[in-house]
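Please fill in the sequence for the structure shown.

STRUCTURE ENCODING:
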């Protein structure tokens, strides 16, 4: 999800990303399960090398399962927030990527972690519905830039109040310090995966 305000005061350049704060579930619960599995695997292996490998494997499994669950929770919240504006979560995601500046489809896909084909399909739908438009790209004649129209900006403006209210509830549920640490941890994990993939 993409809003027009930073996630926290002083965190300019990063959009807020609300999620569903479920009691007794979420990242902490999944991580605990992963740690328990790691301990069981380590005891069975009986060796320092095996223990390290089991711990690493359990971490990756727990991290992946937690990320899948979190993604589903965020998409569910995004759909609810975007519905009053006549958008879907995916439309909001693509429009949000070009609020600050126009981008080519490939650039949107890279920023949002989406496939180029998926972004192209949504961009064409947004243009068809008058929520966005293509403009010439001085750097690449064939890769046109996507930018929101006034109607697109108005649609995002309809989402912002609900987005802000949900974000405030989520931060209140976590506490500001823990919310910041959650965000830092997610960014560190994403950066580490980028490093390993490059």
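FILLED IN BY: designer on duty
SEQUENCE:
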């Amino acid at each position: 999800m993409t809003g027009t305000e930073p996630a926290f005061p002083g965190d300019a350049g990063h959009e807020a990303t609300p999620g569903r704060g479920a009691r007794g579930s979420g990242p902490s619960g999944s991580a605990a399960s992963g740690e328990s599995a790691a301990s069981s695997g380590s005891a069975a292996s009986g060796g320092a090398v095996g223990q390290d490998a089991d711990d690493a494997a359990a971490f990756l499994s727990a991290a992946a399962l937690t990320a899948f669950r979190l993604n589903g929770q965020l998409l569910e919240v995004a759909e609810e927030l975007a519905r009053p504006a006549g958008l879907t979560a995916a439309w909001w995601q693509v429009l949000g990527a070009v609020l600050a500046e126009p981008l080519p489809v490939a650039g949107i896909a890279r920023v949002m972690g989406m496939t180029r084909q998926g972004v192209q399909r949504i961009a064409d739908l947004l243009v068809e519905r008058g929520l966005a438009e293509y403009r010439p790209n001085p750097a690449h004649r064939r890769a046109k830039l996507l930018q929101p129209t006034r109607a697109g900006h108005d649609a995002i403006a309809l989402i912002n109040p609900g987005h802000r209210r949900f974000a405030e509830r989520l931060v209140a549920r976590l506490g500001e310090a823990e919310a910041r640490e959650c965000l830092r941890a997610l960014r560190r994990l994403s950066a580490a995966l980028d490093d390993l993939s490059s």
